Amino acid sequence: MNTSNLFTYKVAEIQITYRNKANPADLPKISNSTDCFNLLLDLWSDKMEYVEEFYVLLLNKANKVLGISKISEGGISGTVVDPKRIFQVALKANASSLVMAHNHPSQSIQPSEADQRITKKIRDAGILLDIAVLDHLIMTKDRYYSFADEGVL
């Protein structure tokens, strides 16, 4: 390959930045699934009973919340979850662990086969990246299902 031609191509410059303006002492700490549910419920969009949405809660080693990111929004019976998007934000935030959550507009909190498959897929990817997947919540406005509490994760 002629190296003089290497610099004639236009390529994107990749930059990774991380800005955290929060005081670490003020970050909420997650101790259990109820803590996750309450925090997410306060921050969830007003579409909980309308369309399915998927969020990820990013945590540091002390289980303090680094941030929350909406991964996808779909229709009334599903949303597409791309594991690359989940780990993109997790790596950018330097997260040590994460909790996934999505809602069921049907008000059922029972996991579907698709819910079980994506949970396993993301858990396995997290193992490779050394980012623990602590839980996956299926939420409605008044209750939730926790994969961790049920021993499925």
Describe the structure.
The protein is an alpha+beta fold and about 150 residues long. It has a single domain, classed as Cytidine Deaminase, domain 2 (3-Layer(aba) Sandwich), CATH 3.40.140.10. About 25% of the residues lie in helices and about 20% in strands. The chain has three helices and five strands; from the N terminus they run H-E-E-H-E-H-E-E. It has helices at about 35-45, 85-90, 115-130, and strands at about 55-60, 65-75, 95-105, 130-140, 145. A five-stranded mixed sheet has the order 2-1-3-4-5, with helices on both faces. The longest helix is centred in the last third of the chain and has 17 residues, at about 115-130. The chain is globular and about 55 Å long. The termini are far apart.
Spell out the CATH superfamily: Cytidine Deaminase, domain 2
Q: Helix proportion of residues, in percent? A: 10-25%
Number of strands: 5
CATH topology: Cytidine Deaminase, domain 2
Write out the strand line-up for the largest beta sheet, numbering strands in chain order.
2-1-3-4-5
Class, according to the CATH hierarchy? Alpha Beta
Main sheet makeup: 5 strands, mixed
Task: Give the helix tally.
Answer: 3
- Cα separation of the termini: 49 Å
Summarize this structure as a short list of keywords or feature phrases.
Cytidine Deaminase, domain 2, alpha+beta, 153 residues, globular
Short description:
The chain is 25% helix and 22% strand. It has 153 residues and is an alpha+beta fold.
Layout of strands and helices, then pairs:
Elements (H helix, E strand, L loop, with lengths): L32 H11 L9 E7 L5 E9 L9 H10 L4 E7 L9 H17 L2 E8 L4 E3 L7
Parallel strand pairs: 3-4
Antiparallel strand pairs: 1-2, 1-3, 4-5
